[in-house]
């Protein structure tokens, strides 16, 4: 299994949609074959269409607010006394997280395909909130599928979705979290694919959805590359890019421009959700050695039992609370280009507290997992090492959890 | 030698009626009960589909989801599914049985091991919901080698060219999905339209047995009786749920449902 250079990772799959010969693919019911094929063809055309690219760039700049800033966290760096810690503050994007890139692109594709309805899944509520924003912006009718457990724990995002005119469909089946929301959303699409476009909220699902999402979030690393050059005059010699990984959309977006670099120069570190310290449940298929399995149309490492039943996961962070992971991250893991580890709920909460105490930054519980790893390794690293954390979400949505766990307002 | 599945269609044709196919989930609501159900309804059904339950069934509606969750909750494992099928076959040697489910279960069991086991317990056919054409080509060949029918699905969204290819690579039976829906949805397309599409498939190769499924109930089954075969699943799963709720005899109630369905198409 080998990575190829100068080809975007999203395009390094074989004709059946598999990365590295075994990750990804399109395990879908027959009914979805046609809509998936139509979408695949349309996306292929659009991504080579200058007018469409111009439109995308226009909305990325004027609607999403690209570029998001790249800042040094001086206090945190001084406090830890080792590597420099920087942050790419993607949470500045309109709506407060990276999910807006994928949502905007899907809304544009939906329009281009002449469909009036758009549906999507959400865990933390960010994918749903952003899709509802984009739908409103582009005049589309929007339904968001969300597990009942997540509706309860991510209220602020639900309020936002409703305000944007989207209908939230509560999902009661299974564990009542993201995994069930995705299933239910796919079921809805099976039944309504003639007039409805589906947006998968991360780099997961059938091959084409991995590609569209990765293509959208790649904007993050395009910006960062420029910012690095202007800040340091060149790409520094020792960089570590740390990103949380649930489905893996922000991590791929954060890394895509840097995958061709040598690992010695730019290390890619993905941090999964380790769940509560004393629990056996987690959402860390890569770092805790889950087996290859098929979930939601893709083959990937997946938390499951021996028989292939999908396991329940547990994490304080709804956005990472997913039993499987993007096939492209499985590919990065097996080719050893990226390293994956996990942080527990407690690690993430501690990191959140330290970062917010020292810096004028309010990372949500998802990037707090990435900060936990940065905090862990920084003291042991040289001062010319540049750690960059993708602060991909804002903690506003975590209001209730933080209050409960930390007694914070 | 003709397959039991082919034979079932021939027998029904002689009686000038469509083949009746039932779907139940193995282990719903218990291992013992589901075997009893199978034994009893097979007095009226021509072919029995037996689902191996999965907890993320992306193409199933509420009724079958409920059945699958119930079976899993009651501890049903894949080897129980095989033992139910085996015990059924001991009693009804000539009644074709088709296993139906999602690919991850087969993948975890390992394809070859799964198929060997199927052969050993005399499974006649397999339907894998999320392993579409052409990705299923290799698997279908493996099935054929072991004398197991791999059943291809075709839907209203299947293009003409694709349809041709699928039919060419199909075995004895093709499953036409009546409408854009998960299982058990309300029939939102007219029977006329469904049969029109059905004929398009049938006209390509008359020797293939084409069955229609999704949304078929006692109310709608009669209007589709021109088809080679008709599949009823959700209506049966729903009856199991209702019988449990009302604390009534599940086997008896479900059998009555199937008996009633058969009556409509004789």
How would you sum up this structure, described in words?
The complex is a heterodimer of chains A (about 400) and B (about 270). In chain A, helix 4 (about 100-110) crosses helix 5, helix 4 (about 100-110) crosses helix 9 (about 205-215) and helix 10 (about 220-230) packs across helix 11 (about 250-255). Helices cover about 40% and strands about 15% of the residues of chain A. By secondary structure, chain A is an alpha/beta fold. Chain A is globular. In chain A, helix 5 links the parallel strand 5 and strand 6. By secondary structure, chain B is an alpha/beta fold. Chain B has a single domain (about 5-265), classed as Alpha-Beta Barrel (TIM Barrel). Chain B has helices spanning about 5-15, 30-40, 60-75, 80-90, 105-110, 110-120, 135-145, 160-170, 190-205, 235-245, 250-265, and strands at about 20-25, 45-50, 95-100, 125-130, 150, 150-155, 175, 210-215, 230. In chain B, helix 2 (about 30-40) packs parallel to helix 4 (about 80-90) and helix 5 (about 105-110) packs across helix 6 (about 110-120). The longest helix of chain B has 16 residues, at about 250-265. The model of chain B has no long low-confidence stretch (mean pLDDT about 95). At the A-B interface, helix 1, helix 8 and strand 11 of A face helix 3 and helix 5 of B.
